[in-house]
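Example S7 (structure tokens).
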């Protein structure tokens, strides 16, 4: 596996692949890799002949500086995992190369509407940071295909909109959430949970399952279902930010034309913020 930090060196490598008629798959990450990331890489390899992963802890998408500084950097362990997956290139750009004029004097990419609800409302500015860095990474890597996890469901929809609106020649693949045996959605943040919190954390997914069962049994009083889940999560030790049943294609409120639904939730448990979702 090559480890490349310079953008032009990466572009030359990808150009050579494309000249050889080799397809290129891409999985962007912030490192601190776990089995969920490895599943994304495996999916990229299933579709493409060459696979690029990136590791960049993107400062633009963090709400708080202390959260950015606390994000675990585990590059050596990450490289070992990527090599075991036969990844062809690890792209490790610097902040200076991606943001040459600094974080403030920066051209930003915003997905209107969809970027301002749910996670966008709970974390102002977060999605602008995500869509800006993803656009930059797509421009650096120039992949044929990119794989994202459905755990960050709203993020996946935003990037789908981004690719469509900016006419990017990239196929996006969404991969189902990878879960721990107890149902907890895999996340780098899970490592911050205490032993006691790890016992409680799977209850978030169980609440989504309970709502899903109620909806499938034709309980359409969504507001009542959402509020009851928030109350139960609070009693179990969470601090819920939202529980929402939405149109899975738009994340707007359910209406008579809605065919696919999704339940989304965000809640804090101690110092850790957890998100999850479940399709109906």
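Recovered sequence:
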């Amino acid at each position: 596996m090559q480890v490349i930090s310079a953008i032009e060196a990466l572009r030359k490598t990808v150009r050579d692949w494309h000249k050889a008629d080799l397809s290129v798959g891409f999985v962007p990450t912030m490192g601190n890799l776990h089995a969920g990331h490895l599943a994304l890489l495996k999916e990229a390899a299933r579709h493409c002949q060459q696979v690029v992963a990136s590791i960049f802890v993107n400062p633009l998408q963090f709400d708080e500086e202390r959260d950015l500084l606390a994000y675990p950097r585990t590059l050596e362990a990450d490289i070992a995992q990527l090599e075991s997956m036969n990844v062809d290139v690890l792209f490790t750009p610097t902040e200076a190369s991606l943001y040459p004029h600094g974080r403030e004097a920066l051209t930003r990419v915003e997905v209107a509407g969809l970027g301002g609800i749910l996670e966008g409302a709970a974390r102002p500015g977060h999605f602008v940071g995500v869509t800006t860095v993803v656009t930059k990474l797509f421009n650096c890597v120039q992949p044929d295909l990119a794989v994202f996890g459905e755990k960050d469901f709203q993020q996946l929809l935003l990037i789908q909109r981004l690719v469509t609106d900016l006419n990017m020649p990239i196929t996006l693949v969404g991969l189902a959430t990878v879960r721990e045996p107890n149902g907890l959605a895999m996340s780098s943040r899970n490592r911050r949970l205490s032993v006691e919190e790890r016992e409680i954390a799977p209850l978030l997914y169980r609440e989504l399952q309970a709502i899903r069962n109620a909806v499938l049994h034709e309980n359409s009083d969504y507001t009542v279902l959402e509020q009851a889940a928030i109350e139960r999560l609070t009693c179990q030790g969470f601090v819920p930010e939202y529980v929402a049943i939405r149109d899975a294609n738009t994340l707007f409120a359910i209406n008579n034309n809605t065919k696919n639904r999704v339940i989304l939730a965000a809640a804090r448990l101690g110092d850790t913020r957890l998100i999850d979702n479940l399709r109906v």
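Notes on this example. The two ends are 40 Å apart (CA to CA).
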